Input
Amino acid sequence: MAPGEESDSGMGSMPDSSKDVTPEKKRRECKYDDDDIEDETLAERLWGLTEMFPEKVRDATFTLYCGTKTGLKSLYGFTRSSFWILFSSSAILFAPVMFEIERAQVEEAQRSQQKQVFK
Output
């Protein structure tokens, strides 16, 4: 090779692109490269991860999930029923007592007013 001649590395007469690329250009190029990839939803990613676990692990996880879901539904229903019984019973049992206390207070107030009027 003669002095002053550049070696041809199979790229033809293309300029060396690593010298011309600025960090801003690299960011723009990366941005366009990311746009070509289709976005996956979270559900699709999780479904893809299931393939790396054995069938027994997936079945056990599914059974645990279903059992937990059923248990929580039952607990929720029981709690609702319990609160309904508790509050309705307390209203039925304590309402008459509260009415009697209120009536006694009103009568006492009337008596004290009558005593003040007659003094």
